[in-house]
Specification:
- By secondary structure, the chain is of the alpha+beta class.
- Helices cover 18% and strands 28% of the residues.
- The protein has 2 helices and 8 strands.
- Strands 1-2-3-4-6-5 form a 6-stranded mixed β-sheet, with helices on one face. The chain has a two-stranded antiparallel sheet with strand order 7-8.
- The relative contact order is 0.14.
- The mean pLDDT is 82.
Length: 155
């Protein structure tokens, strides 16, 4: 098994961190230790995830189960303290340029989808999504030494 490859960098003190490995995965994705990294800075919770990568243009049951696992944690925190702020982001491996995927993902979390379908983050697709109940300044940078474009969020 390898680690998830997820990281969150912050100039503010991270007060709490949790990593929750997905209960469900498919094929080689099971070797990657995929899940969701969650940190807390004050009343802000940041989730960073990398979903199963076997079906980018059509949602598969594994991805929906992984989204359900993230949503359960999100709802538990939100119900514990309705004043918490949230950013849920990552490589969802769900192309929101596909109309059906776009509609599904816009309605999945009760947070605003800040990612723009016309701002591709991987080749000609938008796989890296950002949800939040905050207004955020987001920059996407090309030519980063990765197969995805670099996304910087200023909070």
């Amino acid at each position: 098994l390898s680690d998830s490859g997820l990281i969150i960098l912050s100039k503010y003190t991270i007060e709490e961190s949790i990593f929750d490995t997905f209960n469900d995965c498919s094929k080689l994705n099971c070797l990657a230790g995929k899940g969701v990294l969650i940190i807390r800075i004050g009343d802000l919770w940041i989730f960073n995830t990398h979903l199963d990568a076997n079906a980018i243009d059509n949602l598969i049951n594994i991805q929906i189960k992984q989204l359900d696992q993230i949503n359960k944690i999100y709802n538990n925190l939100k119900n514990y303290n309705p004043n918490y702020k949230f950013i849920i982001l990552g490589d969802f491996n769900i192309n929101i340029n596909n109309y059906n995927n776009n509609i599904f993902m816009k309605n999945y979390f009760d947070l605003k989808l800040l990612s723009k379908p016309n701002k591709n983050t991987w080749k000609y697709k938008t796989l890296d999504l950002i949800y939040s109940n905050l207004n955020l300044n987001i920059d996407i940078h090309d030519n980063y030494p990765s197969d995805h474009n670099l996304i910087i969020i200023n909070v």
